[in-house]
User: Fold this.
Amino acid sequence: MRYPIQPVKLPDDLKGVANGKVPAHLLRPAHGGGTLHHVAAAAWHAMVEAARQDGIELGNVGAYRSYDAQVALFKQRYTRIPNGSRTTRTWNGKRYWLRRGVAPSATPGTSNHGWGIAIDVANVGAGGRLAWLLNNAARFGFSWELQEEHWHLRHVGTPSDPGDLKRGDRGDAVARLQWALVAAAYVIDGAGNGIFGPRTEAALTAFQTHHGLQPTGIADAKTRAMLGL
Assistant:
């Protein structure tokens, strides 16, 4: 099986930020544990909710990793002693071999986990998860990174410009908007249901007011950009 791989477009607010050093104010809790960059977190929550509506439960076993966490994981999984492994890494000018029986990890400072845009899906090969993700991950801006790591997804960017979103609209773009508002600390009952109702409108209007935007209750291009969508 071949997994679709798309290039990553990092969120604009990560410019000048070092891998594994993402400021706390850019991170949000991720469903299943850990944190993600706020754009990836909103997309992940929207995808989790969509999967739940289809009877699929998604969790994660790996989200944002600080540089120190990447170093610790690397030292657990790699050794300086040659062991015949075909998977090697070069770090600080030295060659390392993957230990037997463990999954690979990136060289510290190079992992997409270090940007907060990568997520390792728990038990992806069971419960219909992989098939569902193959059919739906791209809708939420997620793509695979390596053919040999079917559990590892990255948020590569918003799939397409949804246009202005307003009351009465429905769909994945609305679900991403709802979770982006939740990630920005605006409470919406039923967040992630993809239905742009009065509660979503009220939260959006409050966001616009607090950020110096016209409080129209319509998610126009400027509002979506400020939300990272």
Q: What stands out?
A: The mean pLDDT is 92. The beta strands are 27-29, 35-37, 60-62, 78-79, 88-91, 94-98, 118-121, 142-144, 152-155. Residues 30 and 41 are 6 Å apart (CA to CA). The helical segments are 38-53, 67-77, 129-136, 172-183, 198-210, 221-226.
